[in-house]
Amino acid sequence: MKRGSSLLLLALGLTFTQCKNEAYQTQSTTDATAVATTTPAEKEYSYEMAPNDPLNARIYTLDNGLKVYLSDYEEAPRIQTFIAVRAGSKNDPTDATGLAHYLEHMVFKGTTELGTANWEKEKAELDKIEALYEQYRNTRNEAARKKIYHQIDSVSGVAATYAIANEYDKLLTAIGAKGTNAYTWVDQTVYTNDIPSNQLERWLELEADRFQEMVPRLFHTELEAVYEEKNRTLDSDGRKVAEVINTELFPSHQYGTQTTIGTVEHLKNPSITAIREYFDKYYVPNNMAIAMSGDIDFDQTIRLIDRYWGGIEKSQVPNFTVAQEQPIQKPIVREVFGPDAENVSVAFRTPGINEREALVVQMISNLLYNGQAGLVDLNLNQQQKVLQAYAYDTPMKDYGTFRMTGMPRQGQSLDQVRDLLLQQLELIKKGSFDESLIQAVVNNDKINTMKAYEDNSNRADAFVTAFIYDMPWEKFVSRQDEFASITKQEVVDVANKYFQNNYVLVYKRTGKDPNAQKVEKPAITPVAVNRDAQSDYYKAFMAKEVQPLEPVFVDYQKDITETKLKQNIPLLYTKNNDNGLFQLYYILDMGTNNDQKLGMAVNYLKYLGTDKYTAEELQKEFYKLGTSFDVFSSGDQVYVSLTGLDENFEQGLNLFESVLANAKPNQQALKDMVAGILKAREDAKKNKGVILQQAMVNYAKYGAKNPFNTLLSEKELKAVKPQELVNIIKSIPTYEHRVLYYGPRETEALVAVLNEGHKVPATLKPVPKEVVYPELDIKEPTVYWADYNMVQAEMLFLSKSVPYSKDIIPVVRLYNEYMGGIVFQDLRESKALAYSTYSYYGTASKKDRANYLMSYIGAQADKLSEAMSGMQALLTDMPLADANFENARASLRNSISTERITKAGVLFDYERAKKLGLNYDIRQDVYQSANSMTFDQLKEFQQKYVKGQPQVILVIGSKDRLNFDALKKYGKVKQLDLKTLFGY
């Protein structure tokens, strides 16, 4: 989430490959003396390259130590950027945990020039606030503390009159940036932006400015947002389990002794002075990297980076002393309580990422669980011995972790699940697995890397991984070959070395948490956000001209080859010119709304074998081929898909078709599956996200009988026969359908292979009629609430609007762009009511369905009244902010001009368009209208489709904490019990 949710890293980029042959080299055309006396325009830059690097990356090091990683991948005229700092929560002072994460929030607040209307006057107030916080954190008397906080609140109100909230975000929005965000974790803090390539210089100058100084602007309202983020973690059973695991695995190292978001006590007693000291220590160029992948000119880009970043002075970075952990002598057993479904986790401490043994642990992780043919996949999930199980490794700089987690079936104890998990690990330790599985893991790892490197975000993230873990790029690239060299004996040796009775065992039980915490709400007076004010920096930035980029819209007739297969089956085809991967889809316009048993049959398929292969053998065969198949059903469609290496397309297709045509019924598999469905249904009733976002939303839209809760009853499930489901599976290719293909094949060759391999009858049947659930009109204001044991309360405001019409799409896009900033500014920046909040007008996915206005806010339960009135005020009287409006228009045009719908995305964009009755790229209308649209048009839309529209409000929270008097102000209050919502 924005402003630094403490997320685990994306897949750590350890397995990237598909290399090209290029000798390792250091390019240099000038000596160091010449570099020191020349300007960026005259310099020639040294850079490193690695042999067989699939990214063809260049790695530069500026004179001040800043690392720069560049890769040219011109999928679109955009650049994915990461600015990485090699410091995270492990570098927090022991008496100020959460500091790195909170600093990350502050870096978005602007500088002494950006975000201020009068820096001299603002600074005087900010200095007072800093001093007051130091006094506050050193005061123990509660009455005195309240008095000091009242002063902080008062002075903050004065300081805010000189501040311009969100000005950094406004600039990024205006230039068409996407994904403006950041994350903090144990070893790093990373700032992300996806920018148009023509905005590179403006972006580099802006970022160089903000990373040279930290201004604690709007500190106490942002601190409240961090409180809310902490409360969200306290409401997350998964986060609590992870925290317990780390605490026990690392009793000495900061990985376990402190958390990224910090303790409640430290959050309540922040130190701006300590945050500033941290910034000065670690946010220096020789401890930072700029990682970029996209539409890049290497020479121009490095000169621009040097121009704006090269003058920043380096500084000595404190050494980090790694605490040495003692061996765990026996299992450490802990319990975690919360409302979610129960599970059990077994976790081990493993070596740091730069050790070869860490790669072996990664191999073990894949041998156990890879989603297809690992021991956990086959022995536990496919055989339905548990409801669900998985395993994964998490490498970090100093140590790593390996974790196995399982969810029990009905009547199964957590100890039984634990034993099953450990049994799979014992098979690895004994070498009781087919050695060919290692090669299959390596091959699929290569395929996953190819897929990953089709995306600039993954490419740039690989650079971040190499930098944060102090890994030379040559070593990072060669890790794929090193991974492939791992032997079975090595796997067995490492498993026996690290996986003994030295684990942490955590039972996640369903129940009230006896150690529940909460960050209490401080008294905060809303501060001014000065929406229409603009700093001189802002004006100068916006006045800079850039070369505009022209949009490229999808032309469905030109960009998609459409032909016919036998029996007149439509084939829609887009060529893959990038690599040797393919995606094949059979799409039927029928789903669970046509036949409730269809979804059940689709799920059943993964547990079945054929006349030639058992279910386990099938998964192994697909995995060896580097292919995977899936069957997915929604309310109105079935997708049958096959993806993988095109060199094995024919073999994969034949195997895939044999599964559809020759699946063999299995009574025990069906019995186990039904039991699993019933247990999963009960677990869903313990998931607050499912309750609010699915069950309650469907109830509000369709009533008590709706697509979400129209299910086969327990009696009906148990009455279904295996052959009945197999017949449904076999019938899928017999209905009218179309085929989508994205891959490297030429059309004629593809048609020939599909006509030969795709087995269909002489005449295809029309799909059965869909059951359509009528959408309800909202007749009176109503508040529906569901009881859930949680610290926060979450609310959705839902209004039904008109059916889809392409004519309003341009103004809808502008409204969403505009209101997104307004809601964030008002409810978070000004009033500190929420960590997460949004409002958007959602258009229907089908032309005959209604659009809906949906607004969300998650806040402490004691802020319920303020949060609701704040959101309602914005929906009723949309504020006029000229700067926000101009930014919204500019953002629309800049985003669309640099968006490129490519690859398989072209096919699915066409699928979406057809559902809406469109035969062209609707973005054309938005782009052409963006510049001419006025605020009056936006206001007219808001008055007609938003203001005063009948709405229902959906609330989930603890009955003991909800303010029902506040709820009654918005309509008749009605509790929804879980049986009504779920239908069982």
TrEMBL record:
Pfam families: Peptidase_M16, Peptidase_M16_C. Keywords: Coiled coil, Hydrolase, Metal-binding, Metalloprotease, Protease, Zinc. Residues 273-443 form the Peptidase M16 C-terminal domain. Its cofactor is Zn(2+). It comes from the Bacteria. The keyword Zinc applies. GO terms for molecular function: metal ion binding; metalloendopeptidase activity. Residues 75-113, 603-695 form the Peptidase M16 N-terminal domain. Transmembrane segments: none annotated. Residues 119-146 form a coiled coil. PROSITE patterns: INSULINASE. The keyword DNA repair does not apply. One of its GO terms (biological process) is proteolysis. Belongs to the peptidase M16 family. This is Peptidase M16. It comes from Pontibacter korlensis.
